[in-house]
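The passage that follows is intended for readers who have already worked through the single-chain material. We present the inputs for a multi-component assembly, then the predicted structure in tokenized form, and finally a short commentary. You are encouraged to pause after the input and sketch how you expect the pieces to fit together before reading on.
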Amino acid sequence: MKRSRLPAVITCGVILFLFAPLGVLVVNSFNASRFGGEWEGFTWNWYEKLWAAGEVWESLWITLKIAVSASVAAMVLGTLAAYALHRFRSWLQDVHHMLITLPLVMPDILMGMSLLALFVLTGVETGLLTIWIAHVTFCLSFVTMVVLGRLQDFDFTLLDAARDLGATPAKAVRKVLLPLLLPGVLAGGLLAFTLSIDDYVITFFVSGPGTTTLPLRVASMMKTSRSLPVINALSTLLIASTFLFAALSSRLQRRA
Amino acid sequence: MSTRLRPARQWLITLPSLAWLGVFFVIPAVLVILTAFRPADLQGGVGPGWTLATLKEVQDPAYLPILWRTFWLSGATTLICLALALPVAFQMAHSGERMRQVLLLLVVIPFLSNFLIRVFAWKSLLHPEGPLTKLLIALHLIPENAVLLNHAGTVLLVLVYTQLPFAILPLYAAAEKFDFGLLDAARDLGAGPLSAFSKVFVPGVRRGILSAAVMVFVCCLGQYVIPQMVGGTGDEMLGSKIAQRVFSDRNLPHASALAGGLMLAVLLPMLVVVLWQQFGRKEAE
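Having made your guess, compare it with the prediction:
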């Protein structure tokens, strides 16, 4: 029976569509032309300009601080949440489950807006702390979902076996459950880390003076045409690190 | 483990995430709705007392075209994304294990790369001096002075671009569970490839279609960065107005009233999905 080629053709087209703009960006980061309409020769110029742009590196440092601390907090909270959701069946977990899923579908602008309302009304000054809180909040649900997926494959009789062999409940969790769950937790953490680095909208709402994260910096650089090619260079580095991250987390998922 | 200890243990394990989301998700959402009934003060905060004035302001007919645009752009984006994502999900689920991993990675990577950068990539691609404009002019596909940026069409294009992975991933998850033997059966019984696809595969993954549609639609409803960056002045969406009220006018109650409306628009389709799934579960039992 002849199988239609159409789905394969559309798939190739979609993947081309997804990557073409990114590809053009990468090529143009080495293009001497300012707007990248034509190839005017190879240059490292934009990377040198990027290297010299101190405020970009400062923003990167702020972004990394927030991303690392927020994803660690989200990993702890998310793992506990996933464990509770998987282990217990009750009205409490029904509510819990709903609360975990809702942020996944809440548009960014609403989450940013409502957190801003909270901080304004309680008089909390926006800054690093408020960004961190916002990031933990939207990462939490993603980590929970990833860990929950891993828990569904976990064989809980292994815990009983450990108990039968004389392990205390705490020891069984530490020596059996956690090591087997670790790849899932790390994958969740990596996802949280990427989401945190990526976020613009929510951060924009809850940021204060002196807390310009990398996406906020990129957004303000876009307003001046002088720095557009520098954004190309920065984007290329960011896309390269995304590739690295995706490869790393897919390896983590496969090993488990 | 003693059963009497269980409720306490359950609360202990559930409490951290439950409390966090209660304080930083539920309470803020309620606050937004309450703020819509408060007067604005000039410092961008909230004045004392309660008022219905903001709700009257929001009923400004000037919002109607924006509301309409928000809905048709979101609806059109959802339809285009589904039309593209269905064959992709089909192809992915139909491929061998290795190919499947590669395709999945290819879909996920653009989805994980920075959102602003993806929008920026289109902005520079469609720029009057950019490569795509030059190419299309050289091929005589568009007139010499055509401007590709700053149309509602540009907003639609970039919305589709950014939302496509959100449509592909849930559809793929559904297609992975689909029994492809059914397709062969349909073909054996004389169905053409297209009718087998539309009459057997599409109904088979309808739950995936529903969650992809809601995901894309809801994400689009709240957009403001895309219309702001690649759209013209006449292409504002509801999100643009909310951001404008917060940051330019510093009128938190007005922004809250708009956000409250958006929140209802988001929760209603969600409710439909939850009810549908509950119904489906009952049906399965």
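Commentary: The CA atoms of residues 64 and 197 of chain A lie 7 Å apart. The first helix of chain A runs from residue 6 to 28. How closely did your sketch match?
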